[in-house]
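Q: Hi! Curious about what Dihydrofolate synthase/folylpolyglutamate synthase looks like structurally. Here's the sequence.
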Amino acid sequence: MGSSDTLLARFMALHPKLIDLSLGRILTLLERLGDPQKRLPPVIHVAGTNGKGSTIAFMRAILEAAGLSVHVYISPHLVRFHERIRLGAPGGGRFVDEDKLVEALERCEAVNAGDPITFFEMTTAAGLLLFAENPADVLLLEVGLGGRFDATNVIAHPACTVVTPVSLDHSEYLGNTVTKIAGEKAGIFKRGAPAVIAPQEPEPTAVLEAAAERAGASRILIGAQDFNVHEAGGRLVYEDGDGLLDLPLPRLTGRHQHINAGTAIAALRAAGYGGLPARAFEDGMRQADWPARLQRLARGHLAEIVPEGAELWLDGGHNPDGGRVLAQAMADLADRNPAPLVMVAGLLSTKDAAATLGHFKGLAQALYAVPIQNSLAARPAEEVAEAARSAGLVAEVSSSVEQALRTIAARDWPAPPRILICGSLYLAGEVLSANGTPPT
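A: Let's find out. The predicted structure is below.
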């Protein structure tokens, strides 16, 4: 038996394009595997630009708090590929172990027989095979890119489909307007399945609602119209036509997580899980965990470098809307507990660095641009610094995250700083690995 790393490296050579959105290749492969996509537990299928992973994290926490076993499929991973496939089990799921992963990948490789297929298609097939052959009560399935032609869009009868907030990202594949991107995300809507649309701007909402109607969704639930979530008296209040839930504030930091939590609750209710005990929804808010999304790093190698009393935060937001939400969260933290904000940022060349970082103008006192080591699309640190300066920030270049933190620690600050590492999930993965705190 080989290793998963060896197999995954081989898959990269099976198709000339890293991304080639289509369903024909994966449907052929799945047919050769015995159509595992037809033998799954109830599926909640989630698309969107931002908030997909957090919404899934809330759903998983609620379902597991109710005693259900939950499969989860996400992408990309942060440190190890195994993070993409979580197999449900009583008492809580676990990332797929190496032996099971290798066996599934080898079976997919054997039946594919060298035919052209993308890395994501092959690994999605392996995930669906594992989900079909290991029992669980629910599968939470995250779209990789877009929706209409994404390799996950092979589920004919999902229990529910969800689209989280849509904004500009991956324009080279999905279109250069929010309406075009929303149309691609809407491709996951299915006849007879409820469609849940997270609170978002009117333009994508209109596109998504019309698409859900055309697809024949059994119910269409639109945030702020059919369900509402807000903070009141230090609690999170969720309301829809089925009633009200008075819940603790989410463990995940930021007002945007209130929207993700509300979308998760709406999806579970639409999918038939509204009758779970109230305690499950309460515990889900307290227990939901999603690494590299405004994650506080309180221990580990990098956390030991920062000045005494300083805060170290990590976030993988990587597009302009993600930057907006992150800046808002930092401003909220500053209102409650003022501290100098210092940024350490690395971005990909495919992202609008100036637009993403521009939201921090007047908020961050300094930015240290760093390289990303493990991505061919990494933007040089010098370009990140220049983009930050063009957006009105004071920026300089550091050779690494660790060097940036040491430079910050050596400076004289008026108070212990709040340090935010951000800009890319690839960078976030490198940080978690270097810190010795990978996802579990």
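A: A fun detail: The chain has two domains: 4-287, 295-435.
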